[in-house]
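Quick check before the chapter quiz. The format below is the same one you will see on the exam, so make sure you can read both the input and the output lines.
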Amino acid sequence: AAAACARRQSSARPGALLRGLGGMMTALSLALWLGIGWLVWAFAHDIGEPAPGPGSKEFEAANRYLIEARRSSIFANVPKALELADAFNKSAKESYLALARQNPGVSGFETNNPAIVSFCEWHQDRVIFLVLVPGLQQLPANLRSRFGDDAWRASSLVLTDLKVGFTGLRVAVGVRSAGKYDQVLVGRYIRDFEATNTGLKSRAGGPRSKAKLYPLFVPLEQLESWKDE
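Here is the expected output.
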């Protein structure tokens, strides 16, 4: 009887082991399924978006003009800024077409009347330019960076030409493709713009870079009210 009991115990161990392995495989499969599901959800909901903050609502209202435009257009928060947006947009288009001519073997450029769209947000203490460039995401990083440099230079030149710039004026330029932001440049206006004196203070890249623009869209009167509190 003892021998029979021993045989039953020894034969039961492999079965229990298999059941344990089966349970582990089920758990691993469930974890894998949940992981894939989370990734799909994350992609669909674009969790890479920066968190909302002061100025984000005003920024998104301006950004919507760029997204919804169907052809080359200019927009602004006030009539005075519309002239700035127009001059900036023309300069951006010239820079874009110049890059296309200089790089004929690079795909992604739209040379037949590219639908470049610009928005200018003007306040007494700051000016922000937003520009949407079609096919930007298809261009190599070095050309996207060069376009950003050109756009930053254009911001100071436009402010000088239209006699709006002054020492200490805060300036920002946001560059995006049809799908997402590529880079944000922030600094100060420079009247005598040159390679060694551009006024650029920071440059952020990637879709989340747009969060750098949020505080610049907070209305001046709101900033003043915060100071009084």
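If your answer matched, good. Helices lie at 2-45, 56-68, 79-102, 141-161, 220-228.
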